[in-house]
Predict the 3D structure of the following.
Amino acid sequence: MSPGKAVEVPSRIGRLPDLVAARAITPGVLQGHDKLSFASFKEKVEDPVDNTARWDTEPVRELLVEARRRFADSAPTASDAWLAPRLHYTLRLTRSEASDSGLWNFLALCVAPEFVHWRWAGGKSGKGVGQAARFAGRWDLQCFSRLWWAAELFRDGSNYGPVEVACGNQDILNTVLRQEMIQHRPAAQALLRLQRGRVVRTGRDVNAAASAANAAAATLVYEAMAPDELQDSDALREWVLAAGDDASIQYERLPQGPGDGSVPHCSAEILAEWFEKLFKDAPVRGKGKAE
């Protein structure tokens, strides 16, 4: 790149195929020595599915710049709890759309590769990104996908408060997020109630409680024990399509997610009590031993 030449920035979020993404993630990219350029991907990118404002890249770029500014003097992991709900609010996606790895490849490689490196290379340490999956990989490992899905699975309707709790614990993001039980909304909220109530205190506690609850789900049907309510698909669609019309994100307070229905309080309470009983007998690594 010649000195003074402007870097081309995509204005719209598209799809970058997995094979193209995988070939681009070289050891030099992981170490931060080789810089990724949207121009090199331009001919291989697929256009967004519609012409709505939700595919504009500017709001996402501004959000990520703000996240780096706010947590410049902190461990990059501290940004997860702040960023997850705001990324979900900014990226108005259906679950089907969010299951498309091409979208997340595009964000990581074409829109914000510098953020991926900052978050996963240890901030200022410059040690390099350890896994290619942080750029393009499984949904619970990819830099942006994991945060969006954490917000989707742990939000309580329009309330993103539980998302902050969940994403403030790296054990939930790294282990619990991919467990099947979290797909049941009352179960996800019940696990967070144990954490807020100090029933589980450490990362090892969280893993033990979630593992016990997930194992119990093989024999106990949580949907029958603690039923969820059907989410309002029309309200969700209206929220998705309102991107660009809703108020901009207020960085100092949580935004409002889709008004598609809260988790039934009684169901979350039933499971929280059950999970607490399971946790009492669950094996916790290192429990009872001197640290």
In short: The mean pLDDT is 91. Residues 10-156 form one domain. The chain is about 50% helix and 0% strand.
